[in-house]
Amino acid sequence: MTASPHSSGLHHLELWTADLAVSEPAWDWLLTTLGWRREQVEGWGLGRIWRHRDDSYLVLEQSADVLGSRAERRSPGMNHLALRVADRAVLEEIRATAPGRGWRELFADRYPHAGGEDHVAWYGEDPHGIEVELVAAG
């Protein structure tokens, strides 16, 4: 198969938060643990960027246009963000550490197969209700 001259894949994802000071520590810990690199943007006090090695990036931004204080994954729009992790050991490390880093585990009674018997993943929710699924390779 010949590669397309137009690259496809994620360019960036922008998540809005009601309170950057509350959300940022949780996201910084998670993304840097997963190998994303934090980038500083001078003069932009209400947003943060983390870049993946494939050059895609995630933006976390506090905006005056945010409605409400929590994300609601059951409403129209994004339900959750799913990211790949290297293996089950990474999931175990994150699961053990996440509660002290601002994350609330979801579906704990079904870990690690909440997504199905052949699916190994950890599900968490940030301080403002944004759900993340971490899927182990394999």
From TrEMBL:
Q: Know the name of this protein? A: Glyoxalase
PROSITE patterns assigned: VOC
Indicate the segments forming the VOC domain, all copies: 9-137
Tell me the InterPro entries matching this sequence.
Glyas_Bleomycin-R_OHBP_Dase (IPR029068), VOC_core (IPR037523)
**Protein's organism:** Brachybacterium vulturis
Alphabetized SUPFAM superfamilies for the sequence = Glyoxalase/Bleomycin resistance protein/Dihydroxybiphenyl dioxygenase
